[in-house]
Write a structure and sequence with these properties.
By secondary structure, this protein is an alpha/beta fold. It has 23 helices and 13 strands. It has helices spanning 11-26, 31-46, 93-103, 135-147, 151-184, 186-202, 209-228, 235-238, 240-252, 259-262, 267-277, 283-300, 303-309, 316-334, 354-367, 371-378, 386-404, 432-443, 472-483, 491-494, 500-512, 533-542, 555-560, and strands at 52-61, 64-74, 80-86, 109-114, 117-122, 125-131, 344-347, 379-383, 413-415, 446-451, 516-521, 545-550, 568-575.
């Protein structure tokens, strides 16, 4: 169990008492002022566990309006680990505690505190009631507060840790099962061959057999989680791509007594996840776990795929800022809003759906009545990899359910390589339903393109799985613009201009036409390197305004220069 390093002689404890003494000398006794001393102590201690103190934390109550507690310590999975409620010295703290519990305050790990006293409840029981004018007693109750792990959280941590440590083992175990069936199961051999042909036609003509095997593993790993952890038993029947893969999975498991029997070697792994998730009601916390699965699966099992597609989870603060920026620029430059009819929004590299979900929340905050029309007609997204496509589909549909109280399938997510959409006539893309979605999206006039493009310019091994594919029409556009307008592009640096994130700028610029906004978080090398001179010339011609925000992502660049645009990694652009 992790322990808190805290003693009466440590700086946070001394700072707490010094702050109270300053308030005392000024005659300040009201709660809003004196609680800041304890708040600062919690913030300092939280850093040891990578927890963030979130003031005015909202918590739900069954069939009642949500309440706000003075603070919650929240971990990187957005799980509230501990709660804090402050009172001033004039309150009867015991009575205040009982009042709060009657209104529905949590009892699993909550500290009620006033300048001279603190009461701690854990797992519904009173565990400490201390005079915290004594530094040692203050240390004792704070340590107990931080070191406690409710059973559900302890299980959750172990499940996440086990997945991270054993994801490669789980994936390899499934791969062995698949490869064994590929030698003896005629029904599976035929189904797999047909599916491989379909994938090469729909995603990438150079797609390897191993890549398709990994798609089946992704499906098997996540389909059970969707059914049990997220209480979505119909996912495989509702999702138009999952329907196709289920045909192959059914053939794969046809010689087993059941699918559960086929996957029985993974029962202990799934059991840990399912048992833990059953204790957690908040869907957003489960979504965070899905994002963990997404990242750790590819980084632990499909390392080459992760490299090819530049897989990275966009931090939520960046997503929030980008969505707010788009709304601000829409209003300032175009007199429009995300909620307006006719403002079609596209995330061409949707990943697990964070950008679309955040846009839905923004629309609901501005004008909730506008969300159904947007959801049904004017929100669009694409994904080329199976696991994030599944997660995005489920996340977006659940967000709509949360906002409106009713389920409605999201029919504007396409499984497609966005860059392939410039190539003219497409063949069937998995099935008729997906092909129809792609064709409908191509007919829309897109006004906002937002997201996190993939990146992978310097893949070293030409034999790597799923190496960057060529897109003839888009590559030709880059040659005629970004390359032809730059005198300093050599043979060795030329490939940098075919990096997927550079392709994303070229594609998005062309896609929005005469007016609109492109908002990407991206690499920053195009801002000052000689190779990208032609790209900069074209961006200057194509866009009437370009906004760049430096996120300090390039450490080497930070050391070399502090110029305003040196490390810009977010571009928000207006096109007229």
């Amino acid at each position: 169990m992790p322990s808190l390093s805290l003693k009466p002689t440590h700086k946070p404890i001394k700072a707490y008492y010094a702050a109270l003494q300053d308030y005392e000398q000024l005659g300040v006794k009201h709660e809003m002022a004196v609680k800041t001393a304890f708040q600062n102590l919690l913030v300092s201690c939280g850093r040891q566990f990578s927890w963030t103190l979130v003031p005015e934390w909202p918590f739900k109550r069954p069939k009642q309006q949500p309440l706000r507690i003075d603070g919650a310590l929240v971990d990187s999975y957005n799980l509230a680990r501990a709660y804090w409620e402050a009172k001033d010295s004039r309150d009867d703290l015991r009575k205040e505690v009982q009042k709060k519990f009657k209104t529905g305050y949590p009892k699993d790990n909550i500290i009620f505190q006033q300048p001279d006293r603190a009461i701690l409840y854990q797992d519904g029981r009173l565990v400490m009631d201390e005079d915290i004018t004594d530094p040692q007693r203050l240390v004792d109750i704070v340590r107990q507060f931080f070191e406690y792990r409710p059973p559900a959280i302890d299980q959750w941590e172990r499940a996440v840790e086990e997945f991270g440590e054993r994801v490669q083992d789980h994936g390899n175990a499934l791969l062995k099962l698949i490869q064994a069936q590929a030698k003896t199961n005629k029904r599976f051999i035929d189904a797999f061959k047909e599916f491989l042909t379909l994938c090469r036609q729909s995603i990438n003509p150079n797609l390897s057999q191993q890549a398709v095997e990994e798609m089946l593993i992704q499906h098997l790993l996540t389909e059970r989680i969707f059914r049990s952890v997220f209480n979505n038993p119909d996912f495989a029947q509702r999702n138009i791509i999952a329907v196709e893969i289920e045909k192959v999975i059914n053939a794969l498991t046809s010689k087993s007594f059941s699918r559960a029997h086929f996957l029985s070697s993974l029962d202990r792994f799934y059991g840990a996840i399912e048992e833990t998730a059953a204790t957690i009601d908040d869907f957003s916390q489960k979504q965070d776990f899905l994002n963990t699965i997404y990242e750790r699966f590819f980084q632990g099992f499909s390392i080459k795929v992760a490299d090819t597609h530049g897989i990275v989870y966009t931090p939520q603060p960046i997503v929030n800022f980008m969505v707010k920026s788009v709304e601000d620029i829409l209003q300032r430059e175009f007199g429009k809003s995300l909620v307006d009819k006719g403002v079609h929004i596209l995330d061409p590299f949707v990943g697990t759906g964070n950008f679309i979900i955040r846009i839905m929340r923004e629309i609901a905050e501005i004008q909730k009545s506008a969300l159904p029309h947007k959801y049904q007609h004017e929100l669009h997204c694409n994904e080329v990899m199976l696991l994030p496509y599944y997660i995005a589909s489920m996340n977006i549909e659940h967000e709509y359910f949360e906002q409106t109280g009713r389920y409605e399938s999201f029919d504007s997510i396409c499984m497609v390589d966005t860059f392939e959409l410039t190539e003219g006539q497409q063949l069937s893309l998995f099935n008729a339903a997906n092909t129809q979605r792609v064709e409908q999206q191509k007919q829309k006039s897109i006004f906002v393109i937002i997201g996190n493009p993939p990146y992978n310019a310097n893949q070293q091994n030409e034999m790597d799985l799923n190496k960057n594919r060529k897109h003839d029409a888009l590559d030709d556009r880059i040659k005629k613009t970004y390359i032809s307008d730059c005198a300093s592009v050599g043979r060795t640096t030329r490939k940098l201009l075919f990096d997927p994130y550079i392709k994303a700028f070229r594609w998005a610029t062309d896609r929005i036409g005469k007016e609109g906004i492109v908002c990407f978080v991206s690499n920053n090398s195009f801002l000052d390197q000689d190779t990208f001179g032609g790209m900069r010339k074209n961006l200057e011609r194509d866009f009437s305004k370009i906004y760049c925000l430096d996120l300090g992502g390039n450490v080497r660049g930070c050391l070399r220069s502090r110029k305003a645009l040196k490390n810009a990694t977010l571009s928000v652009s207006k096109y007229t």
